[in-house]
Structures are given as structure tokens and as C-alpha cells.
Amino acid sequence: MMIDCRKCEHYYVTWDKDSPHGCRGMGFKSRQLPSTVVRKSSPGMECLLFKKKKIRSQ
Is residue 51 in a domain? Predict the structure, then answer.
């Protein structure tokens, strides 16, 4: 199962056009989604810091 970083509390969009995706949990920015970077650097591993965002009530 692929992790969707956009649903994680640690994910953020950066102002850096070369590295638009960021992960506060792991402390890096990248061109690709952070979960993709983790999977490529550690084959067979998924992000262990994924924490589902809480939905804000209105």
C-alpha cells in the first residue's frame, strides 16, 4: 500500500520550485513526494512517521 503524504500531518508544500514537497517529520524537501523518496532509499520500507491529519470541524 502506498502512503499518500498529502494526508499526513508532517507533509507541507514548500515555496521552493525545485523541491515543492516537504516532510517536517523527517526534515527534508524534495521534488517527489517524501514517501516516494523513502521507498527508493529503503526498498520495501514505507514511511514509519505517517500520521493521518485530523479533520477540522467547522
Answer: no
* Residues sharing a CB contact under 8 Å with residue 27, sequence separation 6 or more, in sequence order: none
What value does the CA radius of gyration of the chain take, rounded to a whole number of Å?
A: 12
State the Cα–Cα distance between residues 17 and 1, nearest whole angstrom: 28
Is the Cβ–Cβ distance between 46 and 33 less than 8 Å?
no
Q: What confidence tens digit (pLDDT) does each residue in 10-33 have?
A: 999 999 999 999 999 999 999 999
Counting every residue written for the chain, the total comes to 58
Question: What pTM, to 2 d.p., does this model score?
Answer: 0.81
Q: Which range marks the domain in which residue 24 is found? A: 5-41
Whether 1 shows a pLDDT value over 70: the answer reads no
Residue with the three cell numbers 527534508 = 28
Q: What is the domain count for the chain?
A: 1
